[in-house]
Amino acid sequence: MAGRRWKRSWDDGGGEWSMPEELRLILPVIKETAQREEPVSFPIIGEPAPDFEADTTQGPITLSSLKGKWVVLFSHPADFTPVCTTEFLAFTKIYDELKAMNVQLIGLSVDSISAHLAWVHEIKEKMGVSIPFPIIADLTMKVAKRFGMIHPGQSSTAAVRCVFFIDDRGIMRAMIYYPLQNGRYMPEILRLVKALQTTDKFKVSTPANWQPGEKVVVPPPKTMAEMEKRPTEGYECKDWYLCFKQV
To answer: Is the pLDDT score of 38 beyond 70?
Structure first.
């Protein structure tokens, strides 16, 4: 094909492009490959999380079947790697607290079930820790691409460190992305779950640096009447639009 020029020819029925025969032969293959490839997308906060069915270390799992539970889905770059191992130990430490809040914890990487099982076995054997949550085997990157876990600037074959917070209705509520080199901070994951659940339960917001048990932000007035009434409602107010209360 090198050195050839495309030429344009016309007939009585309209214009058409003529192309080298080699390109004409491989074009259907290119189109078929493009159609098979899972498009890369990113979830949107406030919309349903992309559903998926996947094999895990604890058997097949479907995201939609978990409605009624909150889900914390996290990805890690690879099995048998140092930072990921420290994270799995740390996620195991918060597993029971998440479970008590009706949260299902799920891990994922672009590795096979065999690799996951071997790694989990080695963690138990060498470090005395049993991994209690399922780990998705996503060798085809189908789930990773639906959730925007593959960032080519970091790696085209491994997921970055993502955390997705999905509520009990299957709605994406929050997302955190970390680079390959830096492990996650487990207290922030717990804090954010508690903040989201507090928002739902009491119809409030949480301020910067909020910790469970601290005062929350009351929704601001929406009318003049509500604004005039606000000072009499017993809130701790800094101004008419910024008020706090204990829940």
So the answer is: no
* CA neighbor of 46 nearest in space, from 217, 196, 220, 210: 196
Written as six digits, the tokens of 8 are: 């344009």
237 among known catalytic residues: no
C-alpha separations of 145 from 42, 184, 191 in Å: 8, 21, 27
Vertex 154: Cα angle to 153 and 155 (nearest 5): 100
List 59's β-bridge partners, or say none: 57
pLDDT in tens, 190-213: 999 999 999 999 999 999 999 999
Tell me the β-bridge partners of 245. 216
Superfamily of domain 203-245: Antioxidant, Horf6; Chain A, domain2 (3.30.1020.10)
